[in-house]
Amino acid sequence: MFSTTRQQTHYLEIGPANGQLMIFLHGWPSISLMWRAHMNAFAAEGWHCVAPDLRGYGDSFAPEANDAYTIKAVVTDMTELHDQLGGKPAIWVGHDWGSVVAAELSAHEPERSRGAVLTSLAYQPQGHALRTVVPLIDRAIYPADLYPDGQWDYYRYYTTHFNAAIADLDADHAASLASIFRSGNPDGIGKISPNAVVTRNGGRFGAAHRAPPAQPDLALWPRADFDALVQKFKIRGFRPACAWYLNDEANIAYARRAPDGGRLSQPVLFVNGEFDQICSITGNSQGDPMRAACADLMVTTMPAGHWLPLECKAEHIEAIHAWLRSKNL
After folding, report:
1. Beta pairing, strands 21-25 & 11-14
2. C-alpha gyration radius of the chain
3. Whether residue 29 has a cis bond before it, omega within 30° of 0
4. How far apart are CA 105 and CA 112, in angstroms?
5. Does residue 29 contact residue 177 with C-beta atoms inside 8 Å?
6. For the purposes of burial, counting CB atoms within 10 Å of the CB of 130, is it exposed (0-12), middle (13-18) or buried (19 or more)?
7. Could you write out the DSSP letters of every residue in 212-280?
8. Rounded to 5 degrees, what are φ and ψ at 290?
9. Residues 62, 258: contact at Cβ < 8 Å?
């Protein structure tokens, strides 16, 4: 546990203290334990591996105010933790919102980053927000008159029905998490995502307003780790995690203050899930701003859904290995 006057961060740590630093950042709705396989693999090779619970998650600081969950605040949390760990330039590995944090930290604090691995969510140099991602929607799949927010409708629903969205998720934490963490399905490619009709259905779970009973996908989470995840959400609820979706304007303003227009000079690996109905960059323009903003970008695609680091643990680890070797990192 690391504490300052402004925050408290719980983190996992493994590997030699004098090893090169690799920091793993989870996304929504996860915790540091999602990186167990990755940390064990890289620590065995001499890396100093650290995975924090980000603000609002696990055992870390979870402020009451929804406007406390800005990317700037989380990046500041991470720079303070990085100083505590010695402050040497690190490899930052992110998934989902963790990719946003890894990329923004690399843009705003380039001396802290030797390279970034972004997974399942492309870097938006103007900030990850509805205003930046909606223009990139594939309108061949989501006609604007029927699906104005496309696959990001669930994101819009948080901004318009936040309390209702949280109540539905909190009705049964185990079932909610089991329903969210599912392996990818190739049958969804090119089809309407369930996340595109959340507003139309009156919530993620429709009229039931709670997740249907479901067993966890043990191909993603070891049972003990899934139970730990559920326990953390039983304590905190979904409000802190979902408050990350409520700070678009602050996040855009912060992104626009990055040096050089947010251009990343470090090597960047983007790992794309081919079956990811929300964030895949295959066959659409979602990855275009990232391609334009990265001086040294490598993209690899895997047959997986959004939870790629859990679904393809060994393959994701090997992709990072190969990229590190190719860049002499």
Report:
1. unpaired
2. 18
3. yes
4. 8
5. yes
6. middle
7. PP----TTTS-HHHHHHHHHHHHHH-SHHHHGGGG-HHHHHHHHTTSGGGG-EEEEEEEEEETT-TTT-
8. -65, -45
9. no
Helix (H), strand (E) counts: the chain: 14, 9
- Distance between CA atoms of 244 and 68, rounded to whole angstroms? 9
Q: Strand 294-302 vs strand 264-273: parallel, antiparallel, or unpaired?
A: parallel
Half-sphere exposure of 200 (CA within 13 A, CB side): 13
Amino acid at 180: I
Tens-digit pLDDT profile for the chain (329 aa)? Answer: 999 999 999 999 999 999 999 999 999 999 999 999 999 999 999 999 999 999 999 999 999 999 999 999 999 999 999 999 999 999 999 999 999 999 999 999 999 999 999 999 999 999 999 999 999 999 999 999 999 999 999 999 999 999 999 999 999 999 999 999 999 999 999 999 999 999 999 999 999 999 999 999 999 999 999 999 999 999 999 999 999 999 999 999 999 999 999 999 999 999 999 999 999 999 999 999 999 999 999 999 999 999 999 999 999 999 999 999 999 99
Pure H helices in 35-172: 36-43, 71-84, 97-108, 130-133, 153-160, 162-170
Q: Which CATH class is domain 2-326?
A: alpha beta
Residue 115 tokens read as 């390279």
Q: Which two tokens stand for residue 90?
A: 């690190």
CB-based contact 168:204 (threshold 8 Å) = yes
CA 121/CA 149 separation, integer angstroms:
17
Q: What are the residue boundaries of the structural domains of the chain, listed by start?
A: 2-326
Token pair, residue 126, equals 């103007």
Alpha-carbon span 47 to 18, nearest angstrom? 8
Which pair of tokens denotes residue 43? 């620590």
Q: Identify the three-state secondary structure at position 310.
A: helix
